[in-house]
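User: Hi! I'm working on a homework problem where we have to compare a predicted structure to a textbook description. Could you give me the structure for the chain below?
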Amino acid sequence: MIEHQVSEKFKEIFGGEGDIRYYFAPGRVNLIGEHTDYNGGHVFPCALTIGTYGAARKRADKRLRFYSMNFEALGVIESSVENLKPEKEADWTNYPKGVMWAFGEKGMQVEYGMDLLLFGNIPNGSGLSSSASVEVLTGFILRDLFGFEVTNQELALIGQFSENKFNGVNCGIMDQFAIAMGKRDHAIFLDTATLDYRYTPIRLENAKIVISCSNKKRGLGDSKYNERRSECETALAEIQEVCGIQTLGDLTEQQFEQCKNSVKDEVRQRRAKHAVYENQRTIRAVEALNNDDLKLFGELMNASHVSLRDDYEVTGIELDTLVEEAWKIDGVIGSRMTGAGFGGCTVSIVRDEAVDDFIRQVGSAYEKKIGYAADFYVVEVGDGPRRLQLQG
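Assistant: Happy to help. Predicted C-alpha coordinates:
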Protein backbone atom coordinates (compact mmCIF):
# COMPACT_ATOMS: atom_id res chain seq x y z
CA MET A 1 0.00 0.00 0.00
CA ILE A 2 1.38 3.37 -1.08
CA GLU A 3 0.17 5.16 2.07
CA HIS A 4 2.23 2.78 4.24
CA GLN A 5 5.35 3.54 2.20
CA VAL A 6 4.61 7.25 2.63
CA SER A 7 4.17 6.77 6.37
CA GLU A 8 7.45 4.86 6.75
CA LYS A 9 9.34 7.45 4.70
CA PHE A 10 7.88 10.37 6.68
CA LYS A 11 9.01 8.78 9.97
CA GLU A 12 12.45 8.07 8.51
CA ILE A 13 12.92 11.66 7.27
CA PHE A 14 11.10 13.72 9.91
CA GLY A 15 10.66 11.36 12.89
CA GLY A 16 7.54 9.53 14.06
CA GLU A 17 6.39 11.63 17.00
CA GLY A 18 3.30 13.85 17.12
CA ASP A 19 0.08 13.96 15.10
CA ILE A 20 1.00 12.80 11.58
CA ARG A 21 -1.90 12.88 9.13
CA TYR A 22 -2.22 11.27 5.70
CA TYR A 23 -3.98 12.55 2.59
CA PHE A 24 -4.64 11.91 -1.09
CA ALA A 25 -5.62 14.16 -4.03
CA PRO A 26 -6.22 12.71 -7.50
CA GLY A 27 -4.80 13.60 -10.88
CA ARG A 28 -7.26 14.36 -13.66
CA VAL A 29 -7.79 13.70 -17.33
CA ASN A 30 -9.92 15.85 -19.60
CA LEU A 31 -12.06 13.72 -21.89
CA ILE A 32 -12.94 16.60 -24.23
CA GLY A 33 -12.90 20.40 -24.14
CA GLU A 34 -9.25 21.44 -24.48
CA HIS A 35 -7.99 25.04 -24.24
CA THR A 36 -11.60 26.12 -23.69
CA ASP A 37 -11.31 26.71 -19.95
CA TYR A 38 -9.66 30.14 -20.23
CA ASN A 39 -11.93 31.00 -23.17
CA GLY A 40 -15.17 30.80 -21.18
CA GLY A 41 -16.18 27.46 -22.65
CA HIS A 42 -17.10 24.03 -21.32
CA VAL A 43 -14.77 21.25 -20.25
CA PHE A 44 -15.40 17.61 -19.38
CA PRO A 45 -12.70 16.28 -17.02
CA CYS A 46 -12.73 13.49 -14.48
CA ALA A 47 -10.57 12.73 -11.45
CA LEU A 48 -8.45 9.58 -11.54
CA THR A 49 -7.52 6.97 -8.97
CA ILE A 50 -3.84 7.90 -9.42
CA GLY A 51 -2.64 11.10 -7.81
CA THR A 52 -0.61 12.59 -4.97
CA TYR A 53 -0.23 11.12 -1.48
CA GLY A 54 0.81 13.34 1.40
CA ALA A 55 1.87 13.03 5.02
CA ALA A 56 1.85 16.19 7.11
CA ARG A 57 2.48 17.32 10.67
CA LYS A 58 1.94 20.77 12.08
CA ARG A 59 4.93 22.44 13.71
CA ALA A 60 5.10 24.78 16.70
CA ASP A 61 7.47 27.16 14.88
CA LYS A 62 7.44 28.92 11.48
CA ARG A 63 9.63 26.39 9.63
CA LEU A 64 8.52 24.51 6.55
CA ARG A 65 10.27 21.26 5.70
CA PHE A 66 9.37 19.59 2.41
CA TYR A 67 10.39 16.22 1.01
CA SER A 68 9.26 14.46 -2.16
CA MET A 69 9.72 10.73 -2.74
CA ASN A 70 9.66 11.59 -6.47
CA PHE A 71 12.69 13.88 -6.17
CA GLU A 72 14.71 12.20 -3.43
CA ALA A 73 18.00 13.61 -4.74
CA LEU A 74 16.80 17.09 -3.72
CA GLY A 75 16.55 15.99 -0.09
CA VAL A 76 14.68 18.11 2.44
CA ILE A 77 13.92 21.61 1.13
CA GLU A 78 13.45 24.15 3.92
CA SER A 79 11.52 27.39 3.98
CA SER A 80 9.43 29.51 6.33
CA VAL A 81 5.82 30.68 6.41
CA GLU A 82 7.16 34.21 7.08
CA ASN A 83 8.77 34.70 3.70
CA LEU A 84 6.70 32.98 1.03
CA LYS A 85 8.01 33.90 -2.40
CA PRO A 86 8.79 31.87 -5.53
CA GLU A 87 12.44 30.84 -5.74
CA LYS A 88 14.18 28.81 -8.41
CA GLU A 89 16.08 26.77 -5.83
CA ALA A 90 12.79 25.91 -4.10
CA ASP A 91 11.98 23.71 -7.13
CA TRP A 92 8.69 21.75 -6.73
CA THR A 93 8.03 23.27 -3.30
CA ASN A 94 6.96 26.49 -5.03
CA TYR A 95 3.59 24.77 -5.56
CA PRO A 96 2.74 24.10 -1.88
CA LYS A 97 4.35 27.43 -0.90
CA GLY A 98 2.19 29.17 -3.49
CA VAL A 99 -0.96 27.72 -1.95
CA MET A 100 0.10 28.84 1.54
CA TRP A 101 0.75 32.31 0.14
CA ALA A 102 -2.66 32.28 -1.60
CA PHE A 103 -4.44 31.34 1.65
CA GLY A 104 -2.80 34.40 3.24
CA GLU A 105 -3.87 36.61 0.35
CA LYS A 106 -7.45 35.39 0.92
CA GLY A 107 -7.30 36.38 4.59
CA MET A 108 -6.32 32.98 6.03
CA GLN A 109 -2.82 33.41 7.37
CA VAL A 110 -0.79 30.23 7.87
CA GLU A 111 0.77 31.05 11.26
CA TYR A 112 2.78 27.88 11.83
CA GLY A 113 5.04 25.70 9.75
CA MET A 114 4.70 22.03 8.89
CA ASP A 115 6.62 18.99 7.81
CA LEU A 116 5.23 17.76 4.50
CA LEU A 117 6.16 14.65 2.54
CA LEU A 118 4.64 13.91 -0.88
CA PHE A 119 4.59 10.98 -3.25
CA GLY A 120 2.84 11.14 -6.62
CA ASN A 121 2.06 8.22 -8.89
CA ILE A 122 1.05 10.57 -11.71
CA PRO A 123 3.76 10.55 -14.40
CA ASN A 124 5.65 13.83 -13.92
CA GLY A 125 5.29 16.26 -16.84
CA SER A 126 2.58 14.08 -18.37
CA GLY A 127 -0.19 16.65 -18.49
CA LEU A 128 -2.34 14.75 -15.97
CA SER A 129 -2.07 17.68 -13.60
CA SER A 130 0.54 16.72 -11.06
CA SER A 131 0.96 20.41 -10.13
CA ALA A 132 -2.78 21.00 -9.64
CA SER A 133 -2.97 17.77 -7.63
CA VAL A 134 -0.23 19.10 -5.31
CA GLU A 135 -2.03 22.45 -5.04
CA VAL A 136 -5.40 20.96 -4.13
CA LEU A 137 -3.75 18.49 -1.74
CA THR A 138 -1.88 21.32 0.00
CA GLY A 139 -5.09 23.33 0.34
CA PHE A 140 -6.93 20.32 1.73
CA ILE A 141 -4.11 19.73 4.25
CA LEU A 142 -4.11 23.40 5.34
CA ARG A 143 -7.87 23.27 5.87
CA ASP A 144 -7.55 20.11 7.96
CA LEU A 145 -4.50 21.11 10.03
CA PHE A 146 -5.40 24.76 10.67
CA GLY A 147 -9.21 24.60 10.64
CA PHE A 148 -9.73 27.05 7.78
CA GLU A 149 -13.33 27.22 6.58
CA VAL A 150 -13.16 26.71 2.83
CA THR A 151 -15.19 24.53 0.48
CA ASN A 152 -13.63 22.17 -2.05
CA GLN A 153 -14.69 24.57 -4.80
CA GLU A 154 -12.84 27.38 -3.02
CA LEU A 155 -9.78 25.11 -2.74
CA ALA A 156 -9.85 24.82 -6.54
CA LEU A 157 -9.98 28.61 -6.95
CA ILE A 158 -7.16 29.11 -4.43
CA GLY A 159 -5.04 26.55 -6.31
CA GLN A 160 -5.63 28.33 -9.61
CA PHE A 161 -4.90 31.73 -8.01
CA SER A 162 -1.60 30.44 -6.62
CA GLU A 163 -0.53 28.97 -9.96
CA ASN A 164 -1.42 32.21 -11.79
CA LYS A 165 -0.01 34.73 -9.32
CA PHE A 166 2.76 32.85 -7.49
CA ASN A 167 4.05 30.45 -10.14
CA GLY A 168 3.27 32.65 -13.15
CA VAL A 169 1.32 30.12 -15.22
CA ASN A 170 -1.88 31.55 -16.67
CA CYS A 171 -3.86 28.29 -16.28
CA GLY A 172 -7.65 28.14 -16.35
CA ILE A 173 -9.77 26.63 -13.58
CA MET A 174 -10.32 23.15 -15.04
CA ASP A 175 -7.45 21.20 -13.49
CA GLN A 176 -7.94 22.30 -9.91
CA PHE A 177 -11.73 22.08 -10.20
CA ALA A 178 -11.69 18.53 -11.58
CA ILE A 179 -9.38 17.40 -8.78
CA ALA A 180 -11.13 19.20 -5.91
CA MET A 181 -14.64 18.20 -7.06
CA GLY A 182 -13.94 14.69 -8.41
CA LYS A 183 -16.59 11.98 -8.05
CA ARG A 184 -16.09 8.28 -8.67
CA ASP A 185 -17.40 7.02 -12.04
CA HIS A 186 -18.49 10.54 -13.07
CA ALA A 187 -16.99 13.28 -15.19
CA ILE A 188 -17.69 16.96 -14.51
CA PHE A 189 -19.46 19.00 -17.19
CA LEU A 190 -18.21 22.45 -16.19
CA ASP A 191 -19.04 25.84 -17.65
CA THR A 192 -15.79 27.67 -16.94
CA ALA A 193 -17.39 31.09 -17.42
CA THR A 194 -19.91 30.62 -14.58
CA LEU A 195 -18.55 27.58 -12.68
CA ASP A 196 -21.96 25.95 -13.11
CA TYR A 197 -21.34 22.22 -13.23
CA ARG A 198 -23.06 18.89 -13.21
CA TYR A 199 -21.84 15.35 -12.76
CA THR A 200 -22.32 13.01 -15.72
CA PRO A 201 -22.01 9.24 -15.22
CA ILE A 202 -19.21 7.66 -17.25
CA ARG A 203 -20.86 4.53 -18.59
CA LEU A 204 -18.27 2.79 -20.74
CA GLU A 205 -19.91 -0.55 -21.48
CA ASN A 206 -17.08 -3.05 -22.09
CA ALA A 207 -14.53 -0.28 -22.66
CA LYS A 208 -11.69 1.36 -20.74
CA ILE A 209 -10.01 4.75 -20.59
CA VAL A 210 -6.37 4.36 -21.60
CA ILE A 211 -3.85 7.14 -21.04
CA SER A 212 -0.82 7.07 -23.35
CA CYS A 213 2.07 9.12 -21.97
CA SER A 214 4.42 10.40 -24.67
CA ASN A 215 7.30 10.79 -22.18
CA LYS A 216 8.14 14.07 -23.84
CA LYS A 217 8.51 16.36 -20.86
CA ARG A 218 6.65 19.62 -20.99
CA GLY A 219 6.64 22.59 -18.63
CA LEU A 220 3.52 24.76 -18.88
CA GLY A 221 5.33 27.91 -17.87
CA ASP A 222 7.94 27.70 -20.63
CA SER A 223 5.61 26.27 -23.28
CA LYS A 224 3.56 28.28 -25.72
CA TYR A 225 0.58 28.05 -23.37
CA ASN A 226 0.65 31.72 -22.37
CA GLU A 227 1.13 32.67 -26.03
CA ARG A 228 -2.03 30.79 -27.07
CA ARG A 229 -3.95 32.41 -24.27
CA SER A 230 -2.83 35.85 -25.38
CA GLU A 231 -3.75 35.12 -29.03
CA CYS A 232 -7.28 34.20 -27.93
CA GLU A 233 -7.60 37.31 -25.77
CA THR A 234 -6.63 39.50 -28.73
CA ALA A 235 -9.06 37.65 -31.03
CA LEU A 236 -11.83 38.08 -28.45
CA ALA A 237 -11.19 41.84 -28.22
CA GLU A 238 -11.40 42.11 -32.04
CA ILE A 239 -14.67 40.14 -32.17
CA GLN A 240 -16.13 42.22 -29.32
CA GLU A 241 -15.88 45.30 -31.53
CA VAL A 242 -18.61 43.85 -33.77
CA CYS A 243 -20.38 41.38 -31.50
CA GLY A 244 -21.54 41.81 -27.90
CA ILE A 245 -20.01 38.78 -26.19
CA GLN A 246 -18.13 38.25 -22.94
CA THR A 247 -16.08 35.20 -23.97
CA LEU A 248 -15.40 33.09 -27.06
CA GLY A 249 -17.46 30.40 -25.35
CA ASP A 250 -20.56 32.56 -25.92
CA LEU A 251 -20.45 31.96 -29.69
CA THR A 252 -22.01 29.16 -31.72
CA GLU A 253 -20.18 27.96 -34.82
CA GLN A 254 -22.60 29.93 -37.03
CA GLN A 255 -22.13 33.15 -35.06
CA PHE A 256 -18.35 32.74 -35.24
CA GLU A 257 -18.43 32.28 -39.02
CA GLN A 258 -20.44 35.52 -39.32
CA CYS A 259 -18.00 37.64 -37.32
CA LYS A 260 -14.65 35.86 -37.79
CA ASN A 261 -13.39 38.41 -40.32
CA SER A 262 -13.18 40.98 -37.53
CA VAL A 263 -10.12 38.99 -36.37
CA LYS A 264 -7.40 40.62 -38.44
CA ASP A 265 -4.78 37.88 -38.31
CA GLU A 266 -5.33 34.44 -39.91
CA VAL A 267 -3.47 32.62 -37.12
CA ARG A 268 -5.54 34.30 -34.39
CA GLN A 269 -8.66 33.46 -36.39
CA ARG A 270 -7.77 29.76 -36.28
CA ARG A 271 -7.07 29.94 -32.55
CA ALA A 272 -10.48 31.49 -31.92
CA LYS A 273 -12.15 28.99 -34.24
CA HIS A 274 -10.76 26.13 -32.16
CA ALA A 275 -12.04 27.69 -28.91
CA VAL A 276 -15.56 28.13 -30.35
CA TYR A 277 -15.84 24.80 -32.15
CA GLU A 278 -14.26 22.82 -29.30
CA ASN A 279 -16.77 24.27 -26.86
CA GLN A 280 -19.68 23.19 -29.07
CA ARG A 281 -18.10 19.73 -29.53
CA THR A 282 -17.91 19.37 -25.76
CA ILE A 283 -21.59 20.25 -25.30
CA ARG A 284 -22.53 17.69 -27.97
CA ALA A 285 -20.21 15.04 -26.53
CA VAL A 286 -21.82 15.21 -23.09
CA GLU A 287 -25.24 14.96 -24.70
CA ALA A 288 -24.02 11.89 -26.63
CA LEU A 289 -22.80 10.25 -23.43
CA ASN A 290 -26.11 10.95 -21.71
CA ASN A 291 -27.80 9.21 -24.67
CA ASP A 292 -25.39 6.25 -24.38
CA ASP A 293 -24.04 7.12 -27.84
CA LEU A 294 -20.41 6.21 -27.26
CA LYS A 295 -19.73 6.10 -30.99
CA LEU A 296 -20.60 9.79 -31.43
CA PHE A 297 -18.63 10.65 -28.29
CA GLY A 298 -15.57 8.97 -29.84
CA GLU A 299 -16.03 10.77 -33.17
CA LEU A 300 -16.11 14.10 -31.33
CA MET A 301 -12.91 13.17 -29.45
CA ASN A 302 -11.22 12.49 -32.80
CA ALA A 303 -12.45 15.81 -34.23
CA SER A 304 -11.13 17.56 -31.13
CA HIS A 305 -7.63 16.24 -31.81
CA VAL A 306 -7.72 17.37 -35.45
CA SER A 307 -8.69 20.88 -34.34
CA LEU A 308 -5.95 20.96 -31.69
CA ARG A 309 -3.47 19.82 -34.33
CA ASP A 310 -4.50 22.09 -37.22
CA ASP A 311 -6.19 25.17 -35.75
CA TYR A 312 -4.59 25.43 -32.31
CA GLU A 313 -1.25 23.82 -33.18
CA VAL A 314 -0.45 22.39 -29.78
CA THR A 315 0.00 18.69 -30.56
CA GLY A 316 3.45 17.95 -32.04
CA ILE A 317 4.81 14.77 -33.58
CA GLU A 318 4.70 12.74 -30.34
CA LEU A 319 1.01 13.26 -29.60
CA ASP A 320 0.03 13.04 -33.29
CA THR A 321 1.83 9.70 -33.60
CA LEU A 322 0.06 8.27 -30.54
CA VAL A 323 -3.35 9.39 -31.80
CA GLU A 324 -2.89 8.43 -35.45
CA GLU A 325 -1.66 4.96 -34.48
CA ALA A 326 -4.62 4.60 -32.10
CA TRP A 327 -7.07 5.45 -34.88
CA LYS A 328 -5.77 2.48 -36.92
CA ILE A 329 -6.83 -0.08 -34.32
CA ASP A 330 -10.19 -1.82 -34.34
CA GLY A 331 -11.86 -1.33 -31.00
CA VAL A 332 -10.66 2.26 -30.47
CA ILE A 333 -13.81 4.33 -29.99
CA GLY A 334 -11.98 7.67 -29.86
CA SER A 335 -8.53 9.11 -29.19
CA ARG A 336 -7.17 12.62 -28.70
CA MET A 337 -4.43 14.58 -27.01
CA THR A 338 -5.36 15.78 -23.53
CA GLY A 339 -3.92 18.58 -21.44
CA ALA A 340 -2.02 21.62 -22.66
CA GLY A 341 -0.20 19.76 -25.43
CA PHE A 342 3.44 20.08 -26.54
CA GLY A 343 4.08 16.63 -25.07
CA GLY A 344 2.17 14.99 -22.25
CA CYS A 345 -0.57 12.46 -22.90
CA THR A 346 -3.38 11.22 -25.08
CA VAL A 347 -6.66 9.80 -23.82
CA SER A 348 -8.37 6.96 -25.67
CA ILE A 349 -11.54 4.98 -25.12
CA VAL A 350 -10.76 1.40 -26.06
CA ARG A 351 -12.96 -1.69 -26.08
CA ASP A 352 -11.89 -4.25 -23.47
CA GLU A 353 -10.88 -6.88 -26.00
CA ALA A 354 -8.63 -4.40 -27.86
CA VAL A 355 -6.71 -2.94 -24.89
CA ASP A 356 -3.74 -5.34 -25.09
CA ASP A 357 -3.43 -4.91 -28.88
CA PHE A 358 -3.71 -1.15 -28.46
CA ILE A 359 -0.83 -0.98 -25.98
CA ARG A 360 1.35 -3.34 -28.03
CA GLN A 361 0.74 -1.82 -31.47
CA VAL A 362 0.67 1.85 -30.52
CA GLY A 363 3.69 1.34 -28.26
CA SER A 364 5.70 -0.40 -30.98
CA ALA A 365 4.87 2.14 -33.72
CA TYR A 366 5.60 5.05 -31.38
CA GLU A 367 9.00 3.76 -30.29
CA LYS A 368 9.96 3.04 -33.90
CA LYS A 369 9.02 6.54 -35.05
CA ILE A 370 10.00 8.67 -32.03
CA GLY A 371 12.98 6.70 -30.76
CA TYR A 372 11.89 6.12 -27.17
CA ALA A 373 8.99 4.34 -25.47
CA ALA A 374 5.59 5.63 -24.42
CA ASP A 375 3.94 4.48 -21.19
CA PHE A 376 0.34 3.30 -20.95
CA TYR A 377 -2.09 3.49 -18.05
CA VAL A 378 -5.51 1.86 -17.96
CA VAL A 379 -7.21 4.23 -15.52
CA GLU A 380 -10.35 4.42 -13.45
CA VAL A 381 -12.44 7.46 -12.58
CA GLY A 382 -12.03 8.29 -8.91
CA ASP A 383 -13.07 10.63 -6.10
CA GLY A 384 -11.69 14.00 -5.06
CA PRO A 385 -9.26 14.77 -2.22
CA ARG A 386 -9.60 13.05 1.14
CA ARG A 387 -7.90 12.29 4.41
CA LEU A 388 -6.64 8.71 4.67
CA GLN A 389 -7.10 6.59 7.76
CA LEU A 390 -3.98 4.47 8.13
CA GLN A 391 -4.35 1.10 9.83
CA GLY A 392 -1.46 -0.07 11.96
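For your comparison, note the following. DSSP finds eleven helices and 13 strands in the chain. The first helix runs from residue 2 to 14. Good luck with the assignment!
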